[in-house]
Amino acid sequence: MNLRRRYLRDRIMVVFVYLGTLIVLLPLGFILLHVFTQGIGALNWDFFTKPPAPPGEGGGGMLPAIVGTFVIDLMALAMGGLLGLGGGILMAEYPDHPLNRPLRLVANVLGGIPAILMGLFAFVLVVVPMGGFSAFSGSVALAILMIPIIMRATEEVLRILPWELREAGLALGLPRWRVTLSLILPAARGGIVTGLLLALARAAGEAAPLLFTAFGNPFLSFDPLGPMDSLPLKIYVYAISPYEDWIRQAWGAALLLALLLMATNYLARRAMRRG
Amino acid sequence: MKKIVILVMMLLLAAAFARGVTLSGAGATFPYPLYAKYFSVYHKATGVRVNYQSIGSGGGIRQLFAGTVHFGASDAPLTDKKLAEFEQKRGTRVIHVPTALGAVVPTYNLPGVRAAVRFSGPVLADIFLGKIRKWNDPALAALNPGVKLPPLPITVVRRSDGSGTTYIWTEYLAKVSPEWKKRVGVGKSVSWPAGMGGKGNEGVAGLVRQIPGALGYNELVYAVQNEIAYGAVQNRAGKFVRADLASLRAAAELPDFPPDTRVSLTDTPAPEGYPIASFTWILVYRDLDKNRAVKSAAEARALAALLDWIIHDGQQFNEALHYATLPEVAVRASEANLAGLLYRGEAVIPK
Known about the structure:
The complex is a heterodimer.
Chain A: H1 2-39, H2 45-49, H3 63-93, H4 100-112, H5 115-130, H6 135-160, H7 163-171, H8 176-187, H9 189-204, H10 231-239, H11 244-274
Chain B: H1 2-17, E1 22-27, H2 32-46, E2 49-54, H3 57-66, E3 71-74, H4 80-90, E4 94-108, E5 118-120, H5 121-128, H6 138-143, E6 155-159, H7 164-176, H8 178-183, E7 196-198, H9 200-210, E8 214-219, H10 220-225, E9 229-230, E10 232-234, E11 240-241, H11 245-251, E12 277-285, H12 297-311, H13 328-339, E13 342-343, E14 346-347
Helix pairs in contact in B: 5-7, 12-13
């Protein structure tokens, strides 16, 4: 009797857990489904190969925004990745360094700042002195956004590695920087790549930091020092416009962005499993 | 490591790809459909790329002051105070180049009413002051004999951002209503006594479309392109006029035209003129080298050539988008102003 009641209780709890999972997954599923059904119609050859058309005319595509998204995000990843990795290594490998406490504080504060402030920061620091909006300033804003994420991910991954690994290297007579570069980083490669990709995915969806930095550009541009377009920017502008065709294209851009982010997340998971 | 090398190589390659002159501008949403058309045509004709982002007139002026764009765009001319600030802090005058004439129209959503509703200036002021609250108010009914106005409450919709369209609208209301002038005043953003806000001309159009009984104000092209009803407004001569190309042109016929083109067209005395009309301007530094965004004499010349193209050849695109072309006097005044543009003391427009 008692045993049966226990089984029953167990089963009820399992049902609740499934129900909870379903409730959490449902909105995600609805969002993806909605974006997919609304956006799939806008994805055609023109969408990928043409610059945008003036409002009300119809036609045109997203080529400058697609190219710009890749250029801006990769530049941001290069900058944010270097700084974030450096910070993470310092915190994990040199636990007694006097810089660590302020560094951790900065990382925590940076992680909590709204993304739009990163844009304002880059505007004041890069756009105004350089006398013009540029893809580079947008990358700076996104890089600042990435730094705390990469820093924390790197630190955590390095912490997990056994100290014996470092001791072995040191015992062989390697200097400390050599140990970090040749032993620790390769051993933690999977986790680090995951951190980089997650930071990239987080930054790639942001429109706010790009409003007053990358600025947008209806022409295809590869110039990192000139204004450049990006998919989140285009979604922001097109979605609130009153033009049917632009709204349709905004859904298409949203679908494309969602697919890119999902691909990035998938790669991140694969890297983690390998590592 | 390999990744970084590849990235650096990509950037170098990207820099090599950059070519031709690119100009950037920011500002008003009011002429945005027109500017997008201009710059698309201009790119095909000359290869010069002009990147215009419609962030609102207030934002355009701020970016011009910060020296981050080649030109700003605004539907409200700069005030004397702002001009003095440019002169003091940037060491240059600002030139106003009018590009088109536009109308701000009262847009509304009244299910079942087919005829264009008639408004007068004082009645619009009272509605936006929150004093007239119902569509079947006696004041409105008196203006619209024969139209059956529903007993719906009026939902006032206005702009939430700094807007040249708001400037034109409030400037008109202040001219026709002493109470509006005293309580609210004129500006790109004012403290509204009533209503809800939408972002940009786009946002106001969207809200008016959704809310039955809503009354907002939009640039004419937004009402036409999105099939929103808009009313006729009684002008100073007592005639009810709907905004169109003819009534816009009539409003712009001025006996004397100021050389700096900063002129208000609202509450026109012209008997056929639409009372809430305005020029919209592109703003540039007179001494172009004072603008940090202008990086070379070639860019300064390209900018001057673009402005020259807009006031002449570009005008042919205005009417298809419901903006009126510039009157002859405005073109002459602008030619004189453009001839005064300098880069390091040298004129940039060939005589």
